[in-house]
Structure formats: C-alpha cells, structure tokens
Amino acid sequence: MYAIFETLEQYNAKNQGINEYRGYPNDKGTMTYAPENPQQTLDGKYAMRIVIGLEEQFTGCEQVESVEYPIDEEI
Amino acid sequence: MKLGLGTRKRKRKRREDLLLSETKAYNARVKADGGYIQDIDIVNAEIKAAKDANEYSTLLRFYPEQCGIKIDRRLGVDYVTKIYDVKGASGDIIISTELNQPVLQEDGTYYLFSQILLIPAIAGTAITHNITFEIMYKPDLAHNQAFGAVPSQSGTDVRMYIIFENTNILDRLGYMENRDDSGILDELTATFTKITLLSSYSDSKMYVYLNDVNVKEYAGTTKNDTMGFVLGDGITEAFGYLKSAKIRQWN
Question: Rounded to a whole number, what is the distance in Å from the CA of A4 to chain B's nearest CA?
C-alpha cells in the first residue's frame, strides 16, 4: 500500500512525523523513514510506501495499492 | 609402564591466528562501528583468493560474500543499514532510508525490494565493476509464459528484460545504472555471464536468476560515480541481493 500526497510539503510533513514516531535518526544507521527527495508519480503526486505495523500512522491519507512512475526510456 | 610421558602436547591454533591481517583489521573496524561479519571464514577465504591472484591491491572497493553488515531490527525483522567495504570506510554502502533497507534472511543473504543499492563514488577515475547480483523474478505463468531473459543496452543503463511469449511484450526486470556526481547518467557496458531459468513445481512459477553482472564504463570517464541496481517500476515480485562486488580501475 502507498499513501498519496498532492505536494512535496505534505509528503515531507508526514515523513517527519514518522521519523519522530520511529525515533529516526537512530544509532543503528537509519536516518529517515522515506526518501526526502522522492520521484513524482506519473500523475505528478508523491507516494510513500506503508510498511507493516505503520498503517495507523497513515489514517486519513489517500491510499492506493500501486503507483506508476514515468519510464524515461524504452527499447 | 609410563603413560603420557614424552607425549607432545598438541597446541591448537586459535581461530583468530588463522585469519589474515587484512581480515582481522576489517573485523575490528566493523565491530567497532556496531556491525558484524556474517561469516568471517568466507570473508577471509575471499581476501586470500584475491591476494593469491595478485588482484587484491588493485581493488578500489571489495564487498565479499557474507561481508560485514550493520542491522536495525524492527518488529522482529533485521534490516540492513550498512554494508562494509573491505578496502576502507569510504566505500561503505550506507542505506539510511528505512524504505530502502534490504531485509536480512536467515541464510545471510538480504533481499532488495524495488530500490537502488548505491556503491559510493570513487573520485576522478574510470572504473570497472565486477558485481554479482542475484536477482530473482517470478512471472505469473497463469497469464504469461516466460521463455527468455536478455540484457539490453540503451546508452546510459543496461536493462534486463523478461520476454513473455503469450503477451509478446518486454517487461522491465531492472537495470544497472551509473551516475556521476551531478546525478547524471554515464554510459556503460555490461555483460551477464550467467542467466538461469528455472521452473518451480511447488508454486508453478518460473524463476529467473541473473548472476555475475560485469559492468564496465566507457573509456575516458573521469567523473565521480555511483553504481547501483534498480528494479523495474511496478516489479513487485522481483528481489535479489548484492552477492559480492569487486571494483577496480578501468584499464
């Protein structure tokens, strides 16, 4: 499952909230939950994967089963 | 009758004494950083093999099988946050984003799920990457009949495709890519010494293994580079891991 965000600011705000919830950065080498500069999806939004155990952190977010990204080149 | 007198007491060599000095130094560095080596005997054997072949000193980066890793355990699952380079800390692969961290398996391998694994840049030199990724993909044979896997080069990356007989489409399994320090893709070449197709009777799926991915930059490249394997967009059942990697100067 993925949570969908309209803007990068919304995406980063959610990422920051999860970082605080998870205690990132920690001393085990994890600095952040999701990448801070995500690629835009095919329809210009930002997707954040929802890992098992974190579902409730995404309550209220738009959620989808899969996301599509632009493919830069095909043979 | 005297028993035991004159019998030489056999002194058993400690395991530590059997390790090369390079292995000991690597082990000490990994432990001091909070990591651990999965199988030090395999690491030692790989270093010894590289030295015996007179290639150890030429390697810029060296990630042997079962090499040192750092883990972050969450909800009973071990995630790999760091892969240690035998040649020094500047080559350590750091995976600081939770969503990108491979999952460590019981057999010491770790699985990647649709993300890039970057090998740190080496400044100002053209390099070759002799990397063994083992990538597995499980096409759904209920809908597609897989019959081949081919590497295909498109200038800036080298892609691996699965060809589906029924749908006659090329589906991107993944690709190697090579970016300079500005994030721009550099050209490269690659060969795959082994592609294995196996069918499974247990789940009626075809497994595609790609081994020994040898990548070489074109001559003349002098930029900083990072190298990684990227699984194709939308590929949810493909996974794999960096089995080993030797990176040396291009010649």
Answer: 15
ipTM: 0.86
Are B224 and B122 within 8 A, CB to CB? Answer: yes
Please answer yes or no on whether A35 and B100 come within 8 Å at the CB atom.
yes
Query: What are the beta bridge partners of residue B100?
Result: none
| Rounded Cα distance, B145 and B143, in Å | 7
Question: pTM score, two decimals?
Answer: 0.71
Averaged pLDDT, groups of 10, chain A, 75 residues long:
94 97 94 89 90 90 82 41
Mark yes or no for CB contact A75/B152 under 8 Å.
Answer: yes
DSSP string for residues in B81-149: EEE--TT-GGG-EE--BGGGPPEEPTTS-EEB-S---PBPP-TT--EEEEEEEEEEE---TTT--EEEE
Residue B105, φ and ψ in degrees, nearest 5 = -100, 165
DSSP B18: G
